[in-house]
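Q: Convert this sequence to structure tokens.
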Amino acid sequence: MGDVCVILGGGGHARVLIDCIQMIGRTKLAGILEYDRTRWGQELMNIPILGGDDLLADIFARGVNCFVVGLGGTGNNQPRQRLYDLGLANHLKPLTIVHPAAVCSRWAKIGAGSQLLPGSIINAGAVIGVNVIVNSGGIVEHDCIVGDHVHIATGAKLASTVRVGDGAHIGAGATVRQCLTIGERAIVGAGAVVVKNVLAHTVVAGVPARPLNIVA
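A:
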């Protein structure tokens, strides 16, 4: 018997995950849990929205054995981390997704619950933490180390040997030069070109990227 999965969060990112899971074809989707009560009882791409997070214990008892975080992120990845921890606390295993159109070296390491979306590239020696999104067209070059709960957004590029701290966000189309460090929960703005280390909890933007403020 294959895995039976519930999606935690039913926004736009969940659409991409539904498509990925159906293309891979090894996992049955039991439904979606969503905080917005007005959507309960509806469907997203023919997958039922069952209710809120309080159903997790009941879902486990009904044979669901894994989960995927269906919430994306535009900077603050703590809500994604909360959903990931919630799934674990309810005895479900995180589903790791590698889209058929993603390129992932057999010499890379991918953490549990991470999502490699269409056109993403993970090269040899890269280490990806748990619950990471490498979004469509994102590139993680050789020997990069990406922490837990990070979002490498659409078309973002990490040159070789970049270190990305837990919870950081690399915005769409951003480029990070080789051998740099992006600190914990830092945010790199869309289209930025990072040529210096970025401190933890700092927002940078522009070409070249410069600090804007400190985030919580």
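The radius of gyration is 17 Å.
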